[in-house]
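wait is this the right file?? whatever heres the structure
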């Protein structure tokens, strides 16, 4: 197998008939260092395909024949280094000594040609940098990412479970504490949407297969949809998208140009079939809740709507603590629907909107979907990782397929512009990102338990519960443990649970009707009265 490019490093797929062990990786690394130290040249040569077939057959490289079969050219390039021969387009560094710092990161399974019916190979992954300092920084980031892994922290903090044996793989159960975070996310999300002129929708989880044939998902997305089910002799499918329901809501009545823009939003749970090997915690699952929105507007409204959407996206992402973004504009691909003039006009509108927000961006030539151009906004987290969350997508396909119209100023029917917009991407995936961003220590407004009231002795419990009640009535998530543990143990438990504030109640606090306040970062904020406590929580 040949090496392939990777967004963060390199990998090489092998088939040696047995598992690759950590000891194997150490041996390979030692051999790599020997080759680097030897400063051996990478020698490129061009050979005919017939010569290449013969060469790799002699070397016992049986997968190379398939690769050569797929290459249309009659001449291919081969590289040699320190006795190793491989088929590769290149280019490479001139000599191995130019490789300054590298590390093998691990082994994972990989189907040959990404086909689950083919051989399972072993993928050895690695990373390389121009200096040891850059490599050390990267490895530190990897170790920090392991500590923050949402798959470990989520269950530890009682936030969620995924793939319970009795439920099935890729299906998430939000536990009470995780549900508290989700409710806080949803409440903020809904409040912001109402303030920005959206109406809320709720749509069914299943629909007749005819809906997905009309939308085009049956033809273009069938492999990612679950198998149909029969109900009353009719064929139904679990929904992979919310869009068709929003379109049918738009078509529920005759629309006038005066009504536009119409903005619909929904926290709609969708279901998509993912291969067992690609599911990953909350990041890639089979059932997830999209924060979907669709805007239907006139062409003369599109610039204003795009401005509103981009500003809305940035406001919400910043509320969750993100401030660094990377933006790309994907343009018309080779295969497309709609008129080229509309594509050009739409791409220009998207570009102007990004520029008005003074966001640096890159053009992804030909990277748009067949039905329209799009803006992708990726956020960069505290570990400098990029996450794809927000997408703003124009659609020339569905308005045509569903015969969407409005009555224009001339009394004639006209197609609306349709904008798809996902802000967080999905609640499940965004929750995973938040857990890793904050290492489970959520900001006060999101924390599942914001305040823990700690009674030093049983005689302080009644007042502790009274204070808890006052905090809850003021809108805060508070809890008082009833166990008779020592104060030190209660504080440790609260810190392990990453509760932002701890209120200690003893004789003095009981007498003065307040609490001594500690933070999860071990700050002692001193004594506060009940009124001061509530005001302080409001300011957090």
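ok assuming it is, sequence goes like this
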């Amino acid at each position: 197998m040949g090496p392939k490019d990777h967004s963060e490093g390199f990998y090489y797929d092998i088939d040696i008939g047995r598992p690759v062990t950590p000891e194997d990786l150490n041996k390979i690394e030692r051999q790599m260092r020997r080759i680097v130290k030897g400063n051996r040249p990478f020698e490129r040569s061009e050979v005919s395909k017939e010569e290449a077939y013969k060469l790799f057959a002699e070397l016992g490289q049986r997968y190379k024949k398939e690769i050569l079969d797929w290459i249309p050219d009659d001449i291919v390039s081969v590289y040699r280094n320190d006795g190793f021969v491989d088929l590769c387009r290149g280019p490479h560094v001139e000599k191995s000594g130019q490789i300054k710092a590298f590390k093998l990161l691990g082994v994972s399974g990989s189907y040959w040609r990404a086909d689950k019916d083919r051989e399972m190979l072993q993928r050895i992954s690695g990373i390389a940098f121009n200096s040891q300092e850059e490599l050390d920084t990267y490895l530190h980031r990897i170790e920090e990412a392991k500590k923050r892994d949402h798959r470990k922290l989520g269950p530890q903090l009682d936030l969620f479970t995924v793939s319970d044996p009795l439920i099935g793989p890729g299906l998430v159960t939000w536990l009470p504490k995780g549900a508290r975070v989700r409710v806080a996310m949803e409440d903020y999300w809904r409040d912001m949407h109402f303030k920005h002129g959206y109406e809320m929708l709720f749509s069914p989880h299943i629909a007749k297969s005819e809906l997905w044939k009309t939308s085009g998902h049956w033809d273009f997305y069938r492999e990612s949809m679950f198998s149909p089910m029969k109900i009353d002799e009719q064929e139904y499918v679990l929904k992979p998208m919310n869009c068709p329901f929003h379109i049918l809501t738009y078509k529920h009545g005759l629309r006038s140009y005066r009504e536009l823009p119409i903005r619909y939003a929904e926290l709609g749970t969708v279901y998509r079939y993912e291969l067992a090997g690609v599911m990953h915690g909350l990041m890639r699952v089979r059932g997830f809740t999209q924060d979907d929105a669709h805007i239907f507007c006139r062409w003369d409204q599109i610039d204003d709507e795009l401005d509103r959407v981009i500003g809305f996206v940035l406001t919400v992402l910043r509320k969750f603590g993100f401030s660094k973004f990377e933006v790309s504009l994907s343009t018309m691909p080779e295969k497309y629907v709609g008129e080229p003039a509309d594509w050009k006009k739409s791409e220009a509108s998207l570009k102007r909107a990004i520029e008005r927000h003074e966001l640096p961006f890159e053009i992804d030539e030909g990277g748009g979907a067949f039905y329209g151009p799009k803006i992708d906004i990726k956020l960069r987290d505290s570990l400098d990782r990029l996450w794809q969350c927000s997408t703003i997508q124009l659609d020339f396909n569905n308005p045509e397929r569903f015969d969407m119209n409005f009555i224009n100023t001339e009394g004639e029917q006209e197609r609306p512009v349709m904008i798809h917009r996902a802000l967080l991407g999905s609640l499940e995936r965004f929750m995973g990102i938040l857990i890793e961003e904050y290492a489970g220590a959520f900001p006060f407004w999101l924390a599942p338990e914001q305040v823990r009231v700690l009674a030093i002795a049983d005689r302080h419990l009644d007042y502790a519960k009274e204070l808890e009640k006052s905090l809850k009535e003021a809108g805060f998530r508070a809890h008082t443990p009833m166990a008779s543990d020592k104060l030190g143990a209660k504080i440790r438990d609260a810190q392990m649970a990453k509760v932002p504030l701890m209120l200690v109640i003893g004789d003095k606090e009981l007498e003065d009707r307040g609490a001594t306040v500690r933070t999860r970062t071990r700050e002692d904020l001193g004594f506060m009265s009940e009124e001061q406590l509530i005001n302080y929580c409001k300011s957090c």
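Residues 205-238 form one domain. so i think its the right one actually
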